């Protein structure tokens, strides 16, 4: 019923206006902002605004010893810190000519794949929340927590582990650890059908995600998209297989792809990757007890370690895409230059800006989460 | 220089027409205050603002594993309805500006918790050019939870202690922001430049809450007022409180 | 097209470029040193003829002794699985270079980043406004001449921390080593 004094109001036709989306916004992953121009509720222009998480890592790393930087690197990407440690260690090993013992390499793979599972579960949770499905967020975060428990047993830290150091890993596994990993993998496999019912095969989610933020193959290639986002466009590229590091060339795994290139395809690729990670971990569990030996090669005194002159460009496949560091040493005890190339520096800036155009305002958050953009990696 | 040191005399509080006459000593008032504090401590809303890496431990803390909702704590999306501003980790200077804007928009009583070592003294980014070192120079902090990063249990424990502080009436740092506004503003100006200002009229609010102290006004607020006056002359400002006040007085 | 043909194409391209010094560092990693004015042509040939479609990153290194910036373009070929790092040097006096945005879209981000952090301007890059350091008034922070520790000491104060356990250690003749 209308009140007595109701007068119909002629609203002006909706015209272009600007909206600041973030940094204080639950639909934004982390502390990040987008300035969007809208016409009605359709985005006509988006401008990313970063730097809220800038800590000057690249500068700080130049001021600290090679070994001290181990504490800094995982903090570059908060949800998926392990690839950061590994890529830095790989780079320093390449510069210093260190041979990593076999057992340490297998332990690193174990650590990396557990981290990939944790990161993907977290993304599923976040992505579900942007489509209004909070139960799945609760599930994703809680299941990720079980992985964090394993990290804690392995390294002592839940989120930041500093487990990989140049030359190997910091400590060996505790007793009965592999059995517990195996238990967790069984649990996750049992959970996946439940996730399907709640999330991946949910009509609400499929309707929202299908056709949102669609990337074509040409766009993905020319915009520098990597990782699951590239594979969702039908291009099978994975650093683990195509530029192998550690012992990935001894492991059997598939590179899942989808062809649609939209938010749904990206999520389904991540789901399939989770299964592949479980497969890799099962192989690691089977092989690891047979590989004995040291977990670290002998290192010089870390407080006076002059890494030989040179440069290295190690690459690792993180859960978000291709992660590279460019390390330059002038033969001193500190790096001359460390350049961090995070996958999100493409996804969260140029790709997100372009994909947002034409979507509706409520799908911007979903696009960002489906790209799995990680702002701390952009800002460094 | 001597001109700058003359502080403006504190003008009499403007009656807004909605001011409630409080009698602190009345028995009923004390009972009501105690009851209000009891309720307030059991319904706390955290502002959903992930300012740094510590934010990664908040989803586990809030969701089913640790479940802060048991303590009556849950996230809130707008600053105007939130009680707690969690500063989760290092604050870059760019973020600090937004944090101050957000904090000033929140309605009192409001509480600030600094999570992670970086908010205490810069943490591992102690020599970074981009992060602010001590949070309590710029905002009144009720509590720090140290660690890099603190576990969800620690966050939980911290919030429990905050609850106790609220119940016992000790958590009133937000009053400190009004009472010593000049000090906080000075530190903010030192970092952001002399023309730093926010859309919120903090001094006006302090008058409204009757919290204007000896240190509320000083050399830094003079600078702020000069800047605002200059802007008002140019017609650039969006800080226009007079019309609102007039409207309220007419009622 | 087979891997071999593509690999041959790479050698052809590098052979055509005068003054390009190639160095095979390890399987899948090639370093090329080239003059600054020839680098865009090299990238064009690499992309157009040898299939180096992916610009992985552009890194900038400050060499204060030489008064030069070193730019490193890392390009990757999906087909041959080889990463070419093209190195070039720019004098600090001019601090200007040519954008390769037309060739590689990702360059837009990296060039903007280098301009912010080093002050090296790229002509023709579409987004050269600030991105990360919008509220920073100092010199480009990644320059070696900028001392972050000195800046911090000038700008910030430290909280006093002198707990009992530390006082006990100091009383015994120990303490914090500066």
Oligomer: heterotrimer
> Level of helix content of chain C?
25-40%
Radius of gyration computed on alpha carbons of chain C: 23 Å
Order of helices and strands of chain C: HEEHEEEEHEHH
Poorly predicted parts of chain B = 1-20, 237-251
**Radius of gyration of chain B from the CA trace?**
19 Å
- Spatial strand arrangement across the major sheet of chain C: 1-2-5-4-3
CATH class of the largest domain in chain B: Alpha Beta
Q: What would you say this structure looks like, in words?
A:
- The complex is a heterotrimer of chains A (380), B (251) and C (178).
- Chain A has a single domain, classed as Cytochrome-c3 Hydrogenase, chain B (Orthogonal Bundle), CATH 1.10.645.10.
- Chain A has 14 helices and nine strands.
- Chain A has helices spanning 57-63, 69-72, 82-96, 102-130, 134-155, 177-200, 203-209, 217-222, 228-231, 239-242, 263-287, 344-356, 361-370, 375-379; strands spanning 16-21, 33-39, 42-49, 164-165, 168-169, 310-312, 315-318, 321-329, 337-341.
- In chain A, strands 6, 7, 8 and 9 form a four-stranded antiparallel sheet that branches.
- The longest helix of chain A has 29 residues, at 102-130.
- In chain B, 37% of the residues are buried.
- Chain B has two domains: 23-171, Rossmann fold (3-Layer(aba) Sandwich), CATH 3.40.50; 175-251, no CATH class.
- In chain B, helix 2 packs antiparallel against helix 6 (152-167).
- A three-stranded parallel sheet of chain B has the order 3-5-7. In chain B, strands 1-2 form a two-stranded parallel sheet.
- Chain B has helices spanning 2-5, 27-41, 58-62, 93-105, 118-121, 152-167, 173-179, 181-192, 202-208, 219-234, 242-250; strands at 44-47, 73-76, 84-88, 91-92, 111-115, 131-132, 143-145.
- With 251 residues, chain B is mainly α.
- Chain C starts with a helix and ends in a 7-residue tail after the last helix.
- The model of chain C has no long low-confidence stretch (mean pLDDT 84).
- Chain C is 30% helix and 26% strand.
- Chain C is an alpha/beta fold.
- The radius of gyration of chain C is 23 Å and the shape is elongated.
- Chain C has one domain: Beta Polymerase, domain 2, CATH 3.30.460.
- Chains in contact: A-B, A-C, B-C.
- Chains A and C meet through helix 1, strand 8, strand 9 and helix 12 of A and strand 3 and helix 3 of C.
